[in-house]
């Protein structure tokens, strides 16, 4: 047990709750600059008059669904976070709070919180300061509450399991971070992260899973990223702060040195916080995650959006395969398709079916359960490798996106209608009219039968030769001179064989 949690009583641990904090207060400066210089994606900039130019990363759509909805869906599967209406906090800044209000319904509108201390002309937003201000405002440092902090500038693959991180950290009673293997520089994911800072995490190499963190390096600039070994672990964007460490988090936010040490990116303050905890002798554990999709630049957004669409297509295929398999194997046991089922047996089988669904998850709707069952049969590593092999060949027209507003007011990204270009012979309608081309004079002569053109396949010839091409009294020509289809081949290869 870590140094900071040794004084925690068993009563406190049993009564502790976990609060989920989604940090969406970043302006996305680099993203906004890329979008501003790219005419096709200016709709992602939702700044009003008098506001700083920004992109609300948590509300942009990946595969047509806002990023924040993916986080909420995986949060609903964790029993520690229930009821989510009481344990959820969404941090916004004063420029994008109106966009979150347009997205949120009555259920989540009360969970929005804006840091009034954020200034309009700040170059970056400090994640640690925003979280600390939220903790003081909501009194989370007074009651025994663990914090699960998620930075909205990144997103994991759809099979990300937040429950595993919360349960392991809750049982171990320590702080925890997420890590992922550094992508290969030659891969598309590696090339997309060339312009972002990287934080190397050193973990116990002998641990099978969820190893202890030995050290966290300072953020490495893109110019020095080439010196990082390929098998290194990088720091992710999901953090678990134990209740006994919350007060230290608030103190670190007020530390002026900590505020100015990582001005390049907003999450750097969280990196410095965990580095300080390690130096003080507290234990921190790491949870390895796969396929982290950053959303700091326009190209990273295009890649993530295309991957989520590709993954959704694989899920639909898996669901259809399961339907087919279910029909092939369980038709006799299905209350809808069994031939000799009585009303009582139908009711029993229906209740058994409903009980099976309810045991899968008591919170997620049935259609989401089907998606989760389908995802369990998918190999995300294989899907990612297959997607990367095809991503380079995707045309720019297929990557274009348009903005629509859903029923909930969320910003959703959907594909544009495909624009096909007609061949030039079809552009002018006057060319559609049949214009016969004059043939060679040998075909129009009437001097002899040899000058006649062979009948076309559209007209049945009045006279034709025998099947062996022998001369007849009506048509003294070979079968090949007729349009009538016989058993004799017209292949030049077979003709040479016949002659031989």
Automatic annotation (TrEMBL):
It is found in: Cell projection, Cilium; Cytoplasm, Cytoskeleton. Keywords: Cell projection, Cytoplasm, Cytoskeleton. The keyword Cytoplasm applies. GO terms for biological process: axoneme assembly. GO terms for cellular component: axonemal microtubule. It holds the Pfam family PIRC1_2. The keyword Cytoplasm applies. PANTHER family: PIERCE HOMOLOG, PIERCER OF MICROTUBULE WALL 1 PROTEIN. Belongs to the PIERCE1 family. This is Uncharacterized protein.
């Amino acid at each position: 047990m870590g140094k900071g949690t040794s004084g925690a009583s068993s009563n406190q641990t049993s009564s502790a709750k976990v609060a989920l904090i989604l940090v969406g207060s970043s302006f996305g400066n680099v993203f906004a600059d890329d979008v501003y210089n790219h005419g096709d994606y200016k709709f992602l900039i939702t700044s009003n008059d008098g506001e700083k130019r920004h992109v609300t990363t948590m509300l942009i759509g990946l595969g047509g669904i806002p990023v924040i909805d993916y986080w909420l869906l995986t949060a609903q599967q964790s029993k520690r976070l229930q009821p989510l209406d009481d344990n959820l906090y969404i941090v916004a800044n004063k420029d994008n709070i109106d966009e979150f209000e347009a997205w949120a319904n009555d259920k989540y509108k009360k969970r929005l919180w804006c840091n009034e201390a954020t200034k309009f002309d700040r170059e970056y937003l400090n994640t640690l300061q925003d979280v600390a201000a939220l903790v003081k405002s909501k009194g989370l440092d007074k009651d025994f509450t663990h914090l699960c902090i998620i930075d909205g500038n990144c997103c994991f693959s759809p099979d990300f399991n937040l429950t595993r991180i919360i349960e392991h950290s809750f049982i171990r009673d320590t702080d925890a971070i997420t890590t992922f293997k550094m992508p290969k520089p030659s891969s598309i994911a590696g090339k997309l992260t060339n312009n972002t800072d990287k934080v190397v995490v050193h973990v116990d190499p002998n641990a099978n899973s969820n190893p202890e963190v030995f050290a966290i390096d300072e953020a490495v600039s893109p110019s020095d990223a080439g010196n990082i070994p390929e098998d290194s672990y990088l720091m992710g964007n999901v953090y678990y702060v134990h209740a006994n460490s919350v007060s230290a988090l608030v103190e670190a936010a007020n530390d002026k040195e900590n505020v100015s040490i990582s001005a390049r990116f907003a999450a750097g303050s969280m990196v410095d916080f965990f580095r300080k905890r390690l130096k003080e002798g507290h234990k921190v554990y790491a949870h390895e995650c796969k396929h982290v999709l950053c959303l700091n630049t326009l190209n990273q957004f295009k890649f993530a959006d295309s991957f989520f669409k590709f993954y959704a297509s694989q899920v639909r295929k898996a669901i259809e395969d399961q339907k087919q398999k279910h029909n092939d194997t369980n038709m006799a046991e299905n209350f809808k398709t069994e031939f000799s089922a009585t009303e009582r047996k139908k009711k029993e089988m229906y209740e058994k079916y409903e009980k099976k669904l309810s045991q899968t998850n008591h919170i997620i709707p049935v259609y989401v359960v089907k998606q989760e069952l389908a995802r369990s049969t998918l190999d995300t590593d294989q899907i990612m490798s297959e997607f990367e092999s095809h991503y380079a060949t995707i045309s720019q027209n297929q990557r274009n996106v348009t903005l629509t507003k859903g029923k909930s007011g969320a910003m959703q990204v959907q594909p544009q209608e495909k624009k096909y270009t007609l061949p030039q012979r079809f552009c002018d309608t006057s060319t559609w009219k049949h214009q016969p081309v004059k043939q060679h004079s040998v075909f129009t002569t009437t001097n002899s039968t040899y000058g006649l053109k062979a009948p076309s396949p559209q007209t049945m010839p009045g006279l034709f030769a025998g099947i062996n091409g022998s001369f007849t009294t009506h048509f003294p020509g070979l079968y090949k001179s007729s349009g009538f289809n016989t058993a004799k081949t017209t292949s030049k290869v077979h003709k040479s064989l016949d002659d031989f």
